[in-house]
Amino acid sequence: MSAREPRNVVSAIWRIESAKLIAMLARMIKSVDLAEEIAQEVFIDALTRWETSGVPDNPGGWLMTAAKHRAVDVLRHARRAERKHDQLAQEVETTLAADFDEALDDVVGDDLLRLVFVACHPVLSQEGRVALTLRLLGGLTTDEVARAFLVPESTIAQRITRAKRTLAEKNVPFELPRPEDLAARLESVLEVIYLVFNEGYLATTGDDWMRPALCEDALRLGRILAELVSESEVHGLLSLMEIQASRARARVSPDGEAVLLPDQDRTLWDPLLVRRGLDGLARADAFVRERPGPYFLQAAIAACHARAKSAADTDWARIAALYDALLQVAPSPVVELNRAVALGMAFGPEVGLAVADPLTNDPALRDYPFLPSVRADFLAKLGRFADAKTEVERAAALTKNARERTLLLERAASYAQSDEERGSTNSPPS
Amino acid sequence: MRYMVLIGHDEKGGNNMTKEEHGALFAAYKKYQDELRKAGVLLGGDPLQPSSGGARITLADGKRKVVDGPFSESKEIIGGYFLIEAKSKAEALEWAARCPAANLDSWSYVEVREIQVLPS
Questions:
Q1: pLDDT, tens digit (0-9, with 9 covering 90-100), for A114-159
Q2: Residues 408..427 of A with a Cβ closer than 8 Å to B: which?
Q3: A206: left (phi over 0), alpha (psi -120 to 50) or beta
């Protein structure tokens, strides 16, 4: 029963308790780095004890108490070493006494939230934020983070060390953001979580299982955050991830090929995650203040697909309107192209083409195969098969994915055939 | 990975409980559920109505047989479940061990089962 070996029990408990423990310690001793070190010492100590005495009934409580004692020791030591720290130590003793009485959920929640904001602090590089978040909040080991991101363990260890050093050098306080900074700081947190999710979601089959597991890690972080923060975008991101994750089994064919949304077998979508995603969207909706944010809108778009029983049932007019709104809050040529697709599906290929055509002058989309592919589709629907063929061949030349290239060239061949058939029935005017 | 934390109990086990004890048990379940949710591992869960309101359906010799509850012959009745997402069996066991049903001495227990993912 390997699951019950003390080592595995301790690593499971680490996963469950470490973030809370590190967060509490970081508040007490005002250093994330030292907090993690103490937490690890406490766990190593626990492992040694439990190997002989067995795991106690309430390991979480045991660890919290042990960690507090250890922190007090560290602080007393610091006080002896340097009298100047008297006041700090005094402060800590006072809060400590209070802490022992009230292991309140609010206190734990606030500490955790501080840790979230510090781990995703904008002074850190994006890589640093991701590594620190997975390690401190996700309870992953450095090795697990490294395997998930396909980089050597030493690279992740360095990123974590560097991130912690930056936090110390920049004197980043272990505090919640000021209200005026909240939106920007939250954006940084959501970006980190979504990046982790996509790293797992875009992983291909045959990869180490750690990569797809990143989706679960991101969902877990998103769910934890949604319990701590009543902001529309937090629930919006969680909803978006739940709905995307619901398609995990449908988006890869049995032979490992990607299956695009319109071609997916919707019976393979996970109804539990769809329902959770739709519920989350409703919560996100309830928290919208001035105007909906980009995660909420993307979730709303994903929800339109999730609600459609078949690809043909999709409410494209609503999706186009949501892309309109998304363009207002997060303008980008890719969003505009998606809006063109939705408009084309809702109101006909001329409408879609009229929106897509100007994008051919956008340098950002110059090498983007989806643009000529979309235009080819509209052109073919308008009966302009020769133009459609040229466009889809352009897309095939641009894509770096062999499987996608094959599919695009198959489309080119079918457009060529349609063009020929039309040529033979309708002779061009002489 | 998803795990089902099944709560089994002897339906008569709570008969001798006082109102206060019932209240405390209810509060303990609420606290447990909150803990699962705040940790981001809870996917779903519900208590079940007593088996007296349920029924069992079997097919014997080609004939359907419907037997109404309660299933008094059994001391192990499923009384509810939590569906959780955990990184490992060890983590699922750790969560399950914190369930009130695993801490009520003889008349209840939890069973942990991993959800099987069928190939698509």
A1: 999 999 999 999 999 999 999 999 999 999 899 888 889 999 999 9
A2: none
A3: left
Task: Report how far Cα A311 is from the mean position of its chain's Cα atoms.
Answer: 26
Domain count of the fold of chain A: 2
In DSSP notation, B17-59 reads --HHHHHHHHHHHHHHHHHHHHTT-EEEEEE---GGG-EEEEE
Which of A324, A345, A362 corresponds to the end of one domain? Answer: A362
**pLDDT surpasses 90 at A104:** no
**Where do the H-state alpha helices sit in A102-209?**
105-119, 126-136, 142-148, 153-169, 182-201
Write down which residue in A347, A362, A377 finishes a domain: A362
Q: Which domains does chain B have, with CATH numbers?
A: 2-114 (3.30.70.1060)
Band of residue A20 on the pLDDT scale cut at 50, 70, 90: very high
Residue of chain B minimizing CA distance to A108: B38
Name the strands in the sheet holding B2-9, side by side, starting at the edge strand that comes first in the sequence.
B42-47, B77-85, B2-9, B108-114
Please tell me the least confidently modeled range out of A66-70, A73-77, A224-228.
A73-77
The three-state DSSP-derived secondary structure of A384-417 is CHHHHHHHHHHHHHHCCCHHHHHHHHHHHHHHHH
Residue whose pair of structure tokens reads 């809060």 in the numeric block: A95
- How far CA A90 is from CA of A84, A87, A153, A347, in Å, comes to 11, 5, 40, 70
* Cα-only R_g, chain B: 16
The distance of B6 to chain A (nearest Cα, Å) reads: 18
Query: With contacts defined as CB-CB under 8 Å, which chain B residues touch A220?
Result: 39-41, 85
Examine residue A82 and state whether it is found in any structural domain, yes or no: no
C-beta atoms surrounding A50 within 10 Å: 18
Whether the CB-CB separation of A223 and A116 falls below 8 Å is answered with: no
Cβ separation B94–A222 shorter than 8 A:
no
B-facing residues of A in 192-251 (CB < 8 A) are 213, 216, 219-224, 227, 249-250
B115 part of contact set with chain A, CB < 8 Å: no
| More reliable by pLDDT, A76 or A105 | A76
Domain membership flag for residue A392: yes
Q: A11: which chain B residues are within 8 Å (Cβ-Cβ)?
A: 88, 90
Q: What is the pLDDT of residue A102?
A: 47
For chain B, percent helix, then strand, then coil, each to nearest 5? 30, 35, 30
Q: What is the pLDDT of residues A30-58, one digit of tens each?
A: 899 999 999 999 999 998 998 888 888 88
Q: Which domain holds residue A394?
A: 367-424
Tell me the per-residue pLDDT of B75-112, one tens digit each, with 9 for 90 and over. Answer: 788 999 999 999 999 999 999 999 999 987 768 899 99
With CB atoms and an 8 Å threshold, state whether B94 touches A4: no
Is residue A252 very low, low, confident or very high in pLDDT (cuts 50, 70, 90)? Answer: confident
Distance CA A220, CA A195 (A): 14
The answer to whether B105 contacts chain A (CB < 8 Å) is: no
